[in-house]
Write a structure and sequence with these properties.
This is Tetratricopeptide repeat protein. By secondary structure, this protein is mostly helical. The chain has 14 helices and no strands. The protein has a domain of 73 residues. The radius of gyration is 23 Å and the shape is elongated.
C-alpha cells in the first residue's frame, strides 16, 4: 500500500512535469491518509499534512483555481498550529512559506488587503525567527519583497514597488550560485525593470536617487547573464526584455540595438514569440522616429549629427535582423 509520503513525492514529481491534475490527485490522497491519523497530537503528522496542503495549493494555483489554492494554504496554516516551531529550523520556514504563498494567491486574485495582511504576517515571522539565519529564510524574505512589489505595481504604486523589488534583488544576490534561486533572481529583476519602465512616465520618479536608471539596466543585464547560465526561458524573461527595451529606448537609445541583438541570440530565445518580436520592433521604430526628429533639428556638420546617424544605422540594422 502506498503511504502518504510516497504520494506527496509522486505529486511533487507531477508538479515538476507540469501534470497539475495528476499532482492534485496525489496530494488529495495523501491528505486523506494524513487526516486519518491523530495528527493534532503528533507534530510529525501535522508537519507532513501542512506540506501536502501547500503542494496542493501550488497545483491549484498553476491551473488558475485560486480560491482552492487559498483554502489549501489556510488548511496548511491550521495544521502548522500543531507543530512546535522552536523545535527545528525548518518548522517556522514552512509556516513562512505558507503565509508568503497565501499573500501571492490573494495578490493574483486582486484581493489587496488580505494580500498585504498576509505579507505582513510573513514578515513578522521572518523577523521573529531571524530572516538571515538560513538561506531558506533569506530566499523567503526575497519572495515577500518580489510578490509584494508585483501587487504594488498593480495598484500603480511604482516607487514602493521599485523599492521592494530592489530589496529582493539584493537579498538574492548571495544565493544566485544555487540553480534553484536563479528563476527567482530573474523574476525579481523583471519586476524591478517593470517598475522603472512605468516610473518613466511618473513625475514622482524624481524622489528616487540619481542612479536609478543605471541600476535598472545593470539589473537587466545581470538577469540575462543568469538566464544564459542555466538556459532559462521562463515567462519572466520575456517581460524583463520587453520592459528593458523600453528603458533603453527612452533613456539610453544608443544601447538599444546592441541590447536587442544580444538578447535575441540563442540560447535565450531560440523561438521568439511574435508578440515579443513585435514589441521590440515597435521600440526600434519609436527610437528611430525620436532620433530622426533630433537629427532634423540640428546642423548637418556637427559631431552630434555624426553620432546620431551612427545610432540610426545601428537601429536600422537591428530592425532588419529582427524582422528576418
Amino acid at each position: 500500500m502506498v503511504d502518504s509520503s510516497e504520494l506527496v513525492r509522486a505529486g511533487i514529481a507531477h508538479l515538476e512535469d507540469g501534470q497539475w491534475h495528476a499532482a492534485i490527485r496525489c496530494f488529495d490522497e495523501a491528505i486523506i491518509l494524513r487526516q486519518a491519523t491523530d495528527w493534532k497530537s503528533n507534530p510529525a503528522d501535522a508537519w507532513g499534512l501542512a506540506a501536502a496542503w501547500i503542494n496542493r495549493s501550488d497545483a491549484m494555483r498553476a491551473i488558475g483555481y485560486l480560491p482552492d489554492a487559498i483554502e489549501s494554504l489556510l488548511n496548511a496554516i491550521r495544521a502548522m498550529d500543531f507543530v512546535p516551531l522552536p523545535d527545528h529550523p525548518a518548522y517556522p520556514e514552512r509556516l513562512i512559506l505558507a503565509w508568503t504563498n497565501l499573500a501571492a494567491c490573494h495578490a493574483d486574485s486582486l484581493q489587496f488587503q488580505p494580500a498585504y495582511r498576509a505579507f505582513s504576517h510573513a514578515e513578522e515571522l521572518l523577523n521573529t525567527w531571524g530572516r538571515d539565519l538560513t538561506p531558506t529564510r533569506r530566499f523567503l524574505g526575497a519572495m515577500v519583497h518580489t510578490n509584494r512589489a508585483r501587487l504594488l505595481l498593480s495598484e500603480g504604486n511604482h516607487i514602493a514597488a521599485w523599492q521592494d523589488a530592489s530589496l529582493a534583488v539584493e537579498t538574492l544576490r548571495d544565493l544566485e550560485t544555487e540553480p534553484e534561486a536563479i528563476p527567482a533572481a530573474i523574476q525579481a529583476r523583471g519586476v524591478l525593470c517593470t517598475a522603472l519602465a512605468q516610473l518613466l512616465e511618473d513625475p514622482r520618479s524624481a524622489e528616487l536617487e540619481q542612479d536609478w536608471i543605471a541600476r535598472a539596466t545593470d539589473s537587466a543585464e545581470e538577469a540575462l547573464i543568469l538566464a544564459r547560465s542555466v538556459e532559462y526561458q521562463g515567462e519572466w524573461l520575456t517581460g524583463l526584455v520587453r520592459y528593458c527595451a523600453k528603458i533603453y529606448r527612452i533613456c539610453q537609445p544608443h544601447f538599444l540595438a546592441e541590447f536587442i541583438l544580444e538578447t535575441c541570440a540563442p540560447p535565450l530565445f531560440p523561438d521568439m514569440s511574435s508578440s515579443l518580436k513585435n514589441d521590440l520592433l515597435s521600440e526600434l521604430a519609436l527610437a528611430k522616429s525620436d532620433l530622426i526628429l533630433r537629427i532634423s533639428g540640428s546642423s548637418h556638420e556637427t559631431d552630434f549629427m555624426q553620432t546620431q546617424l551612427k545610432i540610426l544605422r545601428s537601429l536600422q540594422f537591428a530592425e532588419s535582423e529582427l524582422a528576418k
